Amino acid sequence: MSIDIARDDARFQRNFSRMLIGFAIFTFFFLTTLTYTILKTAPVYMHDWRGPTCILLMVIAFSFYIFPILISIDIIPFSYGWPPPLLYSIIIWGSFYTIIFLLTRIDQSFFLSLYILFGLSFSLFTSRRLFLAIGIMALTIFGYEGLLTWPFNQIALFGIASQCLTFFSITGFSILIQNLIAERFKRNHLFQQLQLANTDLEEAHRQLAQSVEQEQELAILRERTRLAREMHDTLGHALVLITVKLEAAQRLRERDPERCDQELESTKEITRESMSALRASIANLRTPALQHKGIKQALIHSLDELRQRAGLDVSHTLQGELDSLADTLKETLWKVSQEAFANIEKHAHAQHVTLSLRQEEGNLILIIQDDGIGLPTAYCQHQEDGSLACHSPEGHYGLRGMLERVESVGGRLSLRSGEKQGTTIEVTLPL
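Above: the chain's sequence. Below: its structure in token form.
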């Protein structure tokens, strides 16, 4: 639900200001009429200092009453919030009370102005302080009305009880209204916070969507780079070799026809192998093994193919619920293992291959180990910060591609190898 809080607050402020102005107009006429009536009843006051003093004190009393109202409707630029500071409230309330006390020293009928102080108290105090201010005012009124003389009679007790019931009932109702107004502002404040939170959430959602889109674009670029490297390693080398073979066959065609035929046969074999490599690359791009079976079964099947194809002794240890992994992790495990198997088959001259996959402390750990001739130390080196830097030979990008693929999902790749010491690849992926 959408709520225009600013418009709601402005409407409330207008209505509240009109109510305060209405009270101010009523108070002005009440104090003016009371002063006029008292001075008319006792015309002698206008022939000495008492008349002008009464008028002056009434003007000052009305000023103390109107001052908080002018602040509330923003005519006087002064901000204190609500409820006002205690010292400010005591000064306003005490000054008004003192002025009325001085007026009653001239004529006791001015005690009726205390009813104006009764209304003023609601805008200055809350809860217990309000009850205390109303109690002081009520006792003062009872004193001026002669209801506190001892011994109390039934009329005095009835007057005190009835007025106390009136004063404190109105006070209780006023506190209820104050609480409702306070709850209203608290509600609007919560709505403002909620709207700000919604705005921040929408902005975060927009940034997240933008980040996801950028990540997808980055993944596409990385895949394009990988494909370019793979095609360079396979088709690029094959095409160069085919060109060399054809040029050799062309030179041998007249001098040594038999050798020329051998070169052509060799060229055809290279072409067939290149087509097979191309089909394998396309198959790896589509990852059919993961489409039709889980990662565990796909790795086992790949190891079996490696044993049959290269005559290697293979073993594996696969632990944990691997098929419930995220697709990105499955894809990374599959691509890294395929690259490692390809390197072992082509370059390692190994006899035994071991694969281990397990979950440990919130990480997925893949270890592929062979007992082959190993890698030259210059190919992969650990930096001072612990990171791994791969320096593949010119035209070969397998190790670097494995490292980039693992790091793209927040993982870590370590490699232990040496000439004639075998190779161990360890991949740690965060779950």
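The first helix runs from residue 5 to 41.
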